[in-house]
Amino acid sequence: MPMLHHYCCEFHLEETVMKATCCSRPHIGINYESLVMVGVEVFPTSSSRAALNKERSLLTIDAKDIISELMANTYQSVITVTELVVIYVNKVELICRIYGVRTETNEQSRDVAMEDSHRGKVTIHTQFFACSDGSDITISGAERLPDTGCVSTQDVIHVTTSDGEWFPVKRVLLAPCLKLTKYVQSGKGKYKDVPVLPLEDRSIDAPSDDGCPHCKVDIDCCTFDRVLLFIIALLYPEERTFTLGIDEVNSLSNAADHLGLQALADFCAETASSFDARVRNDRFIRFTEIQQRNSGSEILIILDGMVFDITRWLDEHPGGAFIIPAQALNIDCTVFFEMYHVSRQSFLYLKQFYIGELHPEDKTSLRSSAEGVSASEAFLQLLRKYTADW
């Protein structure tokens, strides 16, 4: 059986010899979605092209033969959009560039999935669509991947990675990334204007005229792909799991710092020491300490007896940097949180700022943010359920 080679899309033509950069392979413990359809563009390798040019012949191959080889060599493998797969058909070496895939998506997690996913596992039910890239090869029976529609542009952020790859990502998926807040919240509050990324900084594959925000991250495509998997597992822990290899810790920790993704930074620590270090488990936090720190350069708030340090988040707050200091300091601000932050997205931020519990003696005398008004019991139950394991 011919040997299968997986490559990332970054390649260089030097003296007609193609060089490819190896892409990351599947990680143990990840449950990848099954691929329903895969679209590939086919072109000859540099050596095959040279032989064709020498013979002055045009290569014609049946799409069924290409698909048969792809299925035989990729079955049960995880493949990714822009990956290159080398196959042999009729003794001719061909490169198949994966330009699009369709996956089976769980209904519960569909709100974070793109209609056009970028990765999945090949199964017996996967259907391949092969076409020519238009150079030196004709494919009989060629077909392109069917258009199944696209996600509303209002929900998408176009992300360009440091190696020039393009990821269309739903906004909700990037919500936990504090340093991407202006893109996630674009069109709202102080982020009313959609951020503009110069065309020269965007991936050449990214669309330029759909009105979506564009951003560039100093993270390579393989690492950013792993970040997205982590966030999906964070959003849907009952459906998805995320396993971190020891060899990934440094790259993902750096990515977490770049994105402001505290949950991933904690996960990258050897024993979640990052989280444990900032949470005061040995003793309660007194109200006088909170008042003292709030009188300085810090911003601490109290939510149902929990204390949160939101100093680093204040400038990113969609409602502006002044409303919290003006309304929520040195009181129980649970009512305000219920009024303005009732979505699942808002609950995702909480653990990143949690530092401990208010002393029980101070809870009884603490003034509410709205005198005579208490947070609803349903909201308190939801909040306490979400934070129970802290």
Relative helix content: 25-40%
* Helix segment tally: 14
Radius of gyration: 25 Å
Q: Tell me the strand percentage band.
A: 15-25%
Query: What does the overall shape look like?
Result: elongated
Task: Output mean pLDDT.
Answer: 80
What are the segments in which pLDDT stays under 50 over at least 5 consecutive residues?
1-29
The rounded distance between the terminal residues' Cα atoms is 53 Å
SS class: alpha+beta
Oligomeric nature of the chains: single chain
Instruction: Please describe the biggest sheet, giving its number of strands, its sense, and whether it closes into a barrel.
Output: 5 strands, mixed
Q: List how many beta strands DSSP finds.
A: 17
Strands ordered across the widest β-sheet? 1-7-8-4-10
